[in-house]
Backbone:
């Protein structure tokens, strides 16, 4: 028979809990100062408990107490400020087309954003060298050194084993899976390094600083050439037993009846739903539906040699072009068919669409809502991301900030 150790109890434990609550409230103030009264309200603690916690945090050099200059009568009240400049974190977005790095202080204030393009045909080792170099450049641009970094988080496409810090599958970057990214960066930077799937980080960013602040149940769909999905359930990220939960891109639904293009051919590493509604499939559908003299101008635009850009399709639809609108309606019907499966299973409070396709805004979202209406049991808010290409790097910053909590823990 095994017995568990008794939980630590006593005044010192309660005091530490209070310190953590006050510190969390100050960090969430994004670098602003907070009055004692504000901290009492936000933490739910008594005034004496907050006062003791602030004293402990001041003694640990984590908090600065300053006079409230707005006080007009009597002794000036004090305001507290978390000393966010004590350390810094980096969020890294690794993709087949770009490396995007954000450096932030411990309150999450972004100090530097550094972006470099990933050359066509770059392999995993090439990408790692770019990440390593870009991190050094971003740190230098922030007037920092490696010693100032408390944590770094890397967001990557594919399936990630977070516990072992390994990328298990990354079809969009050949040779990336299996590289010792975490230990090599840890040796370079001398700080904790974390790694996670890019879309799982993007959903954190949406809930932190995007269109879903405070949402407890959230589905985030990254929609571009490929489709990835991040999930928040009851306020916490959900990844599944094998870090593959919510992989909408691999859902196999077949094509809606009477679709003019036929089923897209399978490509190695892409899922059936990606081949159905990814950017390449949308281009293929648009070419088919504008051919035969149905819309010569749009067809010519879509079939320019070496150009598979579909931006013009959405521009034409927004301007009232009926053929373009019909293409987008067909795409929306396909997408709603797959998205409805996730909505029926998870019943999220909100769905956020990110990635390149989100730039189409209501031109795409409105028909998706219309096609969802007959497929789900309740209305779910559907919105476009407001973070653009910053979502993954911001989510990586958020994850890195969370990883600094232990280092900030104080013992009264």
Residues:
């Amino acid at each position: 028979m095994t017995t568990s150790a008794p939980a630590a109890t006593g005044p010192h434990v309660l005091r530490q809990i209070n310190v953590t609550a006050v510190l969390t409230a100050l960090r969430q103030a994004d670098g602003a100062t907070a009055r004692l009264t504000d901290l009492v309200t936000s933490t739910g603690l008594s005034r004496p408990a907050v006062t003791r916690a602030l004293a402990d945090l001041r003694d640990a050099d984590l908090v600065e107490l300053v006079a409230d200059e707005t006080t007009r009568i009597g002794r000036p009240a004090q305001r507290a400020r978390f000393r966010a400049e004590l350390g810094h974190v980096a969020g890294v977005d690794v993709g087949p087309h770009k490396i995007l790095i954000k450096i932030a202080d411990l309150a999450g204030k972004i100090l530097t954003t550094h972006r470099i393009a990933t050359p066509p045909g770059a392999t995993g080792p090439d990408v790692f060298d770019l990440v390593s170099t870009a991190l050094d450049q971003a740190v230098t641009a922030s007037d920092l050194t490696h010693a100032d970094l408390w944590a770094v988080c890397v967001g990557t496409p594919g399936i990630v084993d977070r516990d072992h810090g390994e990328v298990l599958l990354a079809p969009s970057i050949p040779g990336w899976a299996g590289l010792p990214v975490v230990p090599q960066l840890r040796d370079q930077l001398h700080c904790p390094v974390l790694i996670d799937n890019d879309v799982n980080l993007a959903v954190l960013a949406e809930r932190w600083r995007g269109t879903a602040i405070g949402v407890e149940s959230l589905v985030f769909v990254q929609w571009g050439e490929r489709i990835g999905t991040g999930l928040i359930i009851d306020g916490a990220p959900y990844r599944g037993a094998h870090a593959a939960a919510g992989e909408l891109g691999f859902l196999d639904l077949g094509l809606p009846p009477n679709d003019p293009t036929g089923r897209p051919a399978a490509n190695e590493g892409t899922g059936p739903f990606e081949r159905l509604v990814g950017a390449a499939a949308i281009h293929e559908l648009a070419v088919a539906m504008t051919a035969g003299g149905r819309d010569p101008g749009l067809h010519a635009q879509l079939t320019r040699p070496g150009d598979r850009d579909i931006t013009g399709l959405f521009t034409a639809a927004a301007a009232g072009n009926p053929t373009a609108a019909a293409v987008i309606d067909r795409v929306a019907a396909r997408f709603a068919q797959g998205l409805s499966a996730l909505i029926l299973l998870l019943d999220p409070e909100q769905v956020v669409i990110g990635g390149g396709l989100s730039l189409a805004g209501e031109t795409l979202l409105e028909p998706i809502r219309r096609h969802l209406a007959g497929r789900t049991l309740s209305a779910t808010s559907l919105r476009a991301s407001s973070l653009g290409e910053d979502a993954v790097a911001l989510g990586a910053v958020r994850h890195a900030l969370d990883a600094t909590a232990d280092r900030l823990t104080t013992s009264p």
About this structure: The first strand starts at residue 34 and ends at 35. Residues 1-8 have pLDDT under 50 and may be disordered. Residues 86-204+392-408 form a domain with the Nucleotidyltransferase; domain 5 fold (CATH 3.30.420.40).
